[in-house]
Write a structure and sequence with these properties.
By secondary structure, the chain is of the alpha/beta class. Strands 4-3-2-1-5 form a five-stranded mixed sheet, with helices on both faces. The longest helix is centred in the last third of the chain and has 22 residues. It is globular, with a radius of gyration of 15 Å.
């Protein structure tokens, strides 16, 4: 699974946190946000660059490599570290490769419609 990049800079940090919980954003994916750059760590958006009072952060003195050792399932550490590596790229490169907020909203809407269709077929 390759790392996806989402540009949520037009949202306030609370709204960006809410969107980080949608099904389109997965462990290891990168988010550009108003406060900097974050990576999705299981269900928690965690700052890689910048500082936020809304998103999570690593404890002082903890490296990403050390933190990744605590990932519970095989492959999760590599996925997280790949996201951290992507998050370290220049912001202009991230923006050029990012899914915009509007595109993310469309993905979520399409997923909801597919779920509704599947529910109706099952009924």
């Amino acid at each position: 699974m390759s790392t996806k990049i989402f540009d949520l800079r037009d949202l306030d940090m609370g709204s960006a946190y809410d969107w980080s919980q949608c099904e389109a954003i997965h462990h290891g994916d990168v988010m550009l946000v108003a406060d900097g750059v974050a990576v999705m760590c299981e269900a928690w958006p965690t700052m890689v660059a910048g500082a936020s009072v809304v998103f999570h952060r690593l404890a002082d003195g903890v490296t990403w490599e050390r933190f990744a050792l605590d990932c519970p399932r095989p492959g999760m550490a590599a996925q997280l570290l790949a996201g951290v590596d992507v998050a370290g790229r220049p912001v202009a490169d991230l923006v050029a490769a990012a899914v915009t907020y509007n595109e993310l909203a469309d993905l979520v809407e399409l997923a909801a419609l597919a779920d509704l269709a599947a529910t109706r077929r099952a009924a």
